Amino acid sequence: MSPETVTALMGAVGVIGGAAVTSGPSYLASRRTRRAAREEGEATRDAVGTALDVAVARIEGRIDGAVDELRAGLHEVRDWQTSHTAEHVLIEHERRTTDE
């Protein structure tokens, strides 16, 4: 190998080594930042998931309450219809018995 080749190789190794030394800490910092961001993202997803579960449970409770109220109202209407029909049957029965 000629002295120029050895000098060029040493210069290249020096440049690569310098780049590794100067970029190494920033590379490690970016890995830590990515890890922290990933952990924070997981915590955020967990918190949002919990909040959504609570919101869904509240909405389901409201829907169940509304359905129960509707059923109670429907029951009252059916009771009234039954008694009203019974009144008409009695009135018709009285008319037929008095006409005979």
Q: How many helix segments?
A: 1
Mean pLDDT comes to 87
- Total strands: 0
The class by helix and strand makeup works out as: mainly alpha
Q: What is the element string, with H for helices and E for strands?
A: H
The first-to-last residue Cα distance is 138 Å
Taking the sheet with the most strands, its summary is: none
Strand content bin: under 5%
Unreliably modeled segments: none
**Helix content range of the residues, please?**
over 70%
Quick synopsis:
97% of the residues lie in helices and 0% in strands. It is mostly helical and 100 residues long.
Structure in words:
It contains one helix and no strands. With about 100 residues, it is mostly helical. The protein is rod-shaped, with a radius of gyration of 42 Å. Helices cover about 95% and strands about 0% of the residues.
Short key terms for the protein model shown above:
100 residues; mainly alpha; 1 helix
Q: How do the strands and helices of this protein lay out in sequence?
A:
Blueprint: H1 3-99
